[in-house]
Amino acid sequence: MHLLLLSNSTQHGRGYLEHALDTVTGFLPAGGRLVFVPYAIADHDGYTAQVRGALAGAGIDVRGVHEGGDPLARLDEADAVFVGGGNSFRLLSALYRTGLREALIKAVGAGLPYMGASAGTNMAAPSLRTTNDMPIVEPPSFEALGLVPFQINPHYLDPDPASTHKGETREERLTEFLEENDVPVLGLREGSWLRVDGDRAALGGARDARLFRRGAAPREIAVGADLSELLGTTPAFDSPA
């Protein structure tokens, strides 16, 4: 598989995908046809136009998977696929409804390059269970694409020691997840991404990541680190400690 899994597509003070543009254009086939999956946001046409504008200078032909009436046919024509961010529950529900979930698993497994951002990165994990999003719709299942065998938490936020907010921190929520499920969780901070090529995985971007495992203290992962060992994970869900 060839995966580029971004924590975020927008960065403060920069344009859409601008913070990762060199990596994105280096990952996508030059002059290729990129099919964009906009289902995480309600305005499919506007979202697709935003991606098209961001990648126009690289000569990448962006087509919305919703354009033309048959999402599966659009996917069959693609040289790469980009699943955009937004609400992960809405996105996964649409993937089931359109048949794209099974089609993506098959196509990416056969070598179609897959790029995700935020919710699109959540889709690459086995389950929706570590998303930050509100369940605005109910998908048939929490089972996502399972392109990698571990969980990812995009937009990971560190606890703020000066905050007076008494709600759960992201670290506390992921610790709760690990009390009920035995599978590593990679917390991707803003500006970071995971690149997977075959049996190799590495952390890229501008910020380190944080790795959570059951029974161990969270560990900092430096940019450039080899994370290939995570590809050998055997996830166990609904497995209380």
UniProtKB/TrEMBL annotation:
<feature type="active site" description="Charge relay system">
    <location>
        <position position="118"/>
    </location>
</feature>
<keyword id="KW-0645">Protease</keyword>
<dbReference type="InterPro" id="IPR023172">
    <property type="entry name" value="Peptidase_S51_dipeptidase-E"/>
</dbReference>
<comment type="similarity">
    <text>Belongs to the peptidase S51 family.</text>
</comment>
<comment type="function">
    <text>Hydrolyzes dipeptides containing N-terminal aspartate residues. May play a role in allowing the cell to use peptide aspartate to spare carbon otherwise required for the synthesis of the aspartate family of amino acids.</text>
</comment>
<protein>
    <recommendedName>
        <fullName>Peptidase E</fullName>
        <ecNumber>3.4.13.21</ecNumber>
    </recommendedName>
</protein>
<keyword id="KW-0720">Serine protease</keyword>
<keyword id="KW-0224">Dipeptidase</keyword>
<dbReference type="InterPro" id="IPR029062">
    <property type="entry name" value="Class_I_gatase-like"/>
</dbReference>
<feature type="active site" description="Charge relay system">
    <location>
        <position position="133"/>
    </location>
</feature>
<dbReference type="Pfam" id="PF03575">
    <property type="entry name" value="Peptidase_S51"/>
</dbReference>
<keyword id="KW-0963">Cytoplasm</keyword>
<dbReference type="InterPro" id="IPR005320">
    <property type="entry name" value="Peptidase_S51"/>
</dbReference>
<feature type="active site" description="Charge relay system">
    <location>
        <position position="155"/>
    </location>
</feature>
<keyword id="KW-0378">Hydrolase</keyword>
<dbReference type="GO" id="GO:0016805">
    <property type="term" value="F:dipeptidase activity"/>
</dbReference>
